[in-house]
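Page 37, top half.
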Amino acid sequence: MTTEPGDKGERLLPWVGAVVGVLWFLVAGGAPTLDPTNLDGLGIGDPAQHVLGWLHFRDAPWSFPLGRTPSLMAPHVMTVGFSDSNPWLSLLLKPFARWLPRDFQFIGPWLALCFALQGAMAVKLMGLFTRKPLQRVLGAAFFVTAPVLLARVGHDTLCAHWMLTAMLWLYLRPREAAAAARRSLRWALLLNVLAAGTHPYLTVMVFALSVALLVQAWREGHLSSRAAGGVFAGLGLAVSVPFLAFGYVGQGVSTGTIGFGIFSADLLTFINPLGSSRLLPSLPVNSGQYEGFGYLGTGALALGVAGLFGWVFSDRPRSWERVKPLLPLVLVALALTVLGFSSTMTVAGRTVLTMRKLMEPVMPMLGAFRASGRFIWPLYYLLLTGGVAWVLWRWRQRPGVATALLLGAVLLQVVDAPDAWSQRMFVGAPWPRLQAPEWERVDAAYRQVTLVPPVILGSQRPCVENGFPEHTYVRFGDLAYRRGLTTNSGYSARLNEPRVAEVCAALMDDVEHGRLAEDTVYVVDAAKRPLFERLGDRVTCGALDGYTVCVAARDGAFRESLKQASPPPPAPAPSANTPL
């Protein structure tokens, strides 16, 4: 059966692709995350940061920049953009916060939506190369089961790969008239707006692909130079306005250069499974190059081999006219990939070319995108598209052979997907909620929970070095959310390091001189405990959930609970680095 544009089958096929995407999401272990009241599994790493940012934003007053979360990591500027809490979705749900359960997360439903949209957009993309529904769904299956997509479920906002697939569809679809070109550019404009409120890395890729589409529309004569300049300005506004509104820029934070050249892609990334195959061996990479993971999948590679044989033994097209329209797209994808390889190019983890000195003048700009390995994704999906399209074209006279090759390759892709079948990509950690009943007595007399020293993940300042257990900032960020407090700790994607040092130094000076606030709950690192012990009866301290907790308040239910709690363990002997 074939479908014609506009008929019922054509309208239904993207829904079939969406169903395939959701099924793969469920196979990979995503079902438990679909319960929006279930925070378990999200208590570690990036998901914990994202959930905590949303929880504090839902109770925050409206302010500018949009997404401001003044109760998290106070007094530093913190937004849902810096906590990577899916700004557009957080903004959409905030008006309904009073009716939502107190424990509420949207990461699971968002991930399912990303898999569904990836399947739907891939079916539309495959429709440019075949009218056969089965072939379109099989081709789309490579996009749904792409190992790079599943590898990103631990960083939910980076799972919106459907935006890249949509941009490929917009670029490759026919544009026989100016109206069609303008329609494609309008959709590209919308995708830029969506990407700018989802994740900055996706924004760069979507913007670059949009520029490629704009250039090609101009080359085809659908736009005048003046009109093309206007569209380019519109694309710039589509990105810059959300960036300003969500506080990605203009907040005095530093982009830094630490990480660029480390969190890159290896030159063999497209064939290196890194443990995502039982059949093919993994190749060595450097420690940070997981960010540049780009394995195409065993089935996709097998299809590529079949296509290569077909290329050798076929009357392949030699017309330059067929290739010229792809030039802007290919050049943009290659340029992004070179950026993904970064200033230090490696093969199987071994450095083969260093361009650090050459790129030194632009490092302040490139440092904003230190995890540059992600920029291989446009070429990744272009390779998938090209591989399926070539097989369909090569055996166009024998569609049964093309369908059989696609089916066999998809089955191989699915079978050799240990990350999916083991469901390990969705194995997280329980939400690290404090359990001591005494926390329920933290009443309205308290306004802040202060960790001493502050836990500012990602900061390189010596003042914030601490011995707190892992994810302490999540535990007390959760407490602050539940009790209506602010907290001085958190995890921000970008920091104003001089401000971090200044705020930390002011806190430590107050502690050292006994200037403690009565409306604050102090959580004290073991190395700083002597500073509180020497204050004697000016403070009340106790041990709750393994933490030393102190207050300067002279009365109140929580103070009484601390007096009855187990005393803190003996403080460690002061070291030369412990100020007294």
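Page 37, bottom half:
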Amino acid sequence: MVGCRYRGQPRRTAPVRNLMGCNMSFRRSAVEEAGGFDAGLGRTAAGAAGCEETELCIRIAAARPGGVFLLDPAARVHHYVPRERATAAYFRRRCLAEGASKAGVAQRTGAAAALRTERAYVRRTLPVGVGRNLARAVRGEGAGILRAGAIVAGAGLTAYGFAGARLGAHRVPATVAEPILPLILDGADVPAVPSADGAGHYGRALCLLLDDGIPVARRITELDRVDASPPRAARPRAAGRRRPEATVVIATHDRPAGLAECVLSVWRGTAVPARIVVVDNAPSDAAAERTVAALAGGGCPVDYVREDRPGLALAHNAALPLIVTPVAAFTDDDVLVHERWLEALLDVFDADPSTMCVTGMIAPRELDTLPQQWVEARAVFDKGLRRTVFDLDGPRPGDPLFPLTAGAFGSGASMAFRTGYLRAVGGFDPALGAGTAAMGGDDLAAFYDVVRGGHRLTYEPSAIVLHPHHRDYAQLRRQAYGYGVGLGAYLTRCVLDDPRTLAVLARNASAAVARVSGGDAEPVIPGLPPYPRALVRAQRRGMAAGPYLYLRSRRRTARAAQEVRA
């Protein structure tokens, strides 16, 4: 794994096979002739892959056989390596990603061109490095043996990543797709879709159709090409009605811009809460606090709470002492809430005193990339268009795992509880949630507790929030693994609370596996490439790790609670 200059490279200006991405320059004509970079390669915010510059250099060399790439050691840049990259976990991920990236280049350009430099590096440079460090270890330098071991381990991990990608285990599928424009249209709205000059961005729209705020259908609609969201005829609306019975809680972590958008979308709804509580969870700076202060200075009824212990459940619990209203609604800092979101949640509580929890629909904010479209087509967040009541007394759904299948009840980005109920059960399980070792599952556990405790949970699709699905494949793969960990952690909690649950899971293991693998329902977005099996495997790996990680999270949470009490 090489991210900078290394011994064995030329010490004077000399030809090389490829340049390095952080310090390179090309003739523009050469890049244009080769067709530019391959968008299927390269690092993203969530993944450590690379080799996009290697693949481009190989294609340029093929297009211009007489040309050369020169390495000039005097043209230097200084590369800052952040702390998180100086860990064994990152080293492992980087080596695996490097191997998978080399496999991607070999698939595109052929193994001979893709691996020529790497073969020489493995045959010459790495053995010299191992030998040098072993010699230092013999002379008494203890770290020498560790460095030699790291070189061997890195080479092995890279080879494993390469082999896995060649065999399909780690292959990154092509993720380029025709973008789709998500729209929410009420019956009283008049959508105006302008016709462009044929060079627009969106050719199709996924329309969620409402009838006076109630979802009734989804439609894929062909559009004249448009470059932005189609304008809609504005309906005159009075200022939102104050609802003194509700508090909205928004947990945030280092996302001040998204936080501001979310708070303003709540404030501008048809129902305005008595209070908005922002919980700043394990922040790295004071940006969220400044954002809340600015919003409060503008008249928004928002308060700030800081919770330094990481964990979404801990953040939600930190808000409970400030809630004096009968209802507490929760959403996330990366969503926008629909104007009727809070109104729809409160209407259910008003109509049914037996309901202790209400969940809502999660609709997409953007469907520009194939990973985003996969999420929406697979209904990862969407729970349907019909109001559904979940309890132990009414008709049971045709699911042998009910009520363990709490993922069908809703999602944590759109949920509300009666405050008295939350206080009675002690809030959310602090060992679960994003930011903990369990990585999630806090909302599932809360929903399960409502139904298992003999109460009623209602899914209300008209309580809509708009969620930004992950744009790239690496992020989606990490999310799939994290969801698997959260699910495994949640189920482990259920077993610990009631050991008879283990027998239920064992009897219905095939049904549980089928749920993770995905159902056979008609996809919301037709015509997409198949959902990658690698993502299903990532979720299964997460589920397998979930029990251990939940137990570890419980131990950490217990220790932290003891330290707080001390």
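Margin note: Residues 70 and 182 are 47 Å apart (CA to CA).
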